[in-house]
User: Fold this.
Amino acid sequence: MNAAVAPSTPEPTPWKGWAAVSAVSLGIFCLITSELLPVGLLTPVGAALGVSDGTAGLMVTVPGLIAGFCAPLVTVGAGRLDRRLVLCVLIALMAAANLAAALAPNFAVVLAARLLVGVSVGGFWAIAGGLAVRLVPERHVGRATAVVFGGVPTASVLGVPAGTLLGELGGWRTAFGAVGALGFVTLVALILLLPALPPDRNISFRELPALLRDNREVRAGVIVTFLVVTGQFAAYTFVRPILRDVSGVGAEYVSTLLLGYGAAGVAGNFLVGARDARRTLLVVSAALAVVLALIAVLPGAVAGTALLLAWGLAYGGVSVSLQSWMIKAAPGAAEAASSLMVAMFNFAIAAGALVGGLAVDGIAAPAAPLTGAGLMLLAAVTVWVTSTRRRDSAGGVPERADGVVGNQRGAEVMDRTDG
Assistant:
């Protein structure tokens, strides 16, 4: 994200700026809901199309991998294009892909449609992260950024359970079709509400590896993103068979429980707010390690329900905390740092779904949350070590996001973003 508004972008009026911010947030909500929708529909899709739960997990793995590649590629490749046009094209692509999946005659066509969803997710999320500063007056940048990125955890903890419920009521094809329809509604909102957004800064491919090489905080944030998100989706992708095989929850209650998970996650997002990202991630990753280990071994619907709610509460603050970590780690190159985080976040979704699928097919359903628990524990250790090193070096000269000294202006903007 750039600290300065592009000269060609007029000072936005408050109501138009917030309307544009809301449209972008709705776009992120639709895209992340689309990416994660199969989590609650693995069993019905697999049964209808004749594939196992592990194979059906590829519906999450494929778009995650593609989104990971496309986050930096679209950010760099779209450097000369109006951001409004790019976002509209990407959301239209997502909507069409979901309608194609709803009409797919076989699993191969579903996977092809999911590939297009990955392109949309990676590009849209990476570009949207830098738009708040161009849509609202400077004093509102922090709040607007929070609203934009609020679409990520809201989709993870609310959009997927709602899609699961719709799938239970009308079938999995109805759920995919509904997300596609919502995508076209979002397209209309973006066309009507977003102003022209000509590029104000180009990012080169060389800047991304340089940021990883020269900025230890960014490097640590990328590693923590991989561990936490991989651990989450190794377990969450297969939450349905876990609840069925371990907790003994009937299929008719899964969608209701996932809605409870979603409500707990929204509460967790608000509880985290603008708290210190490192401290939050340390507590959250440690708590998730315990919860995932327990849900793998404790039988009974009551225990499963309580642990699922605790799971949602803890995970609700992950996305906001990771984004806050990356922006503060690189206030002078926040757009590039966000692109790296988005790429790793989506690679980790794919890796989690793949690892969890191998565990479920090769061992049993409880192996998925146990794998996730181990990765969460590694994440907690990484956060603790990084925080300790940061305190030890606090007396030194502050490092700028892109590896040199200074950039107080960027740090001030990011402090407002966190507040």
Notes: The CA atoms of residues 38 and 87 lie 23 Å apart. Confidence is low (pLDDT under 50) at residues 1-8, 396-419. The chain has one domain: 14-391+404-418. The radius of gyration is 20 Å.
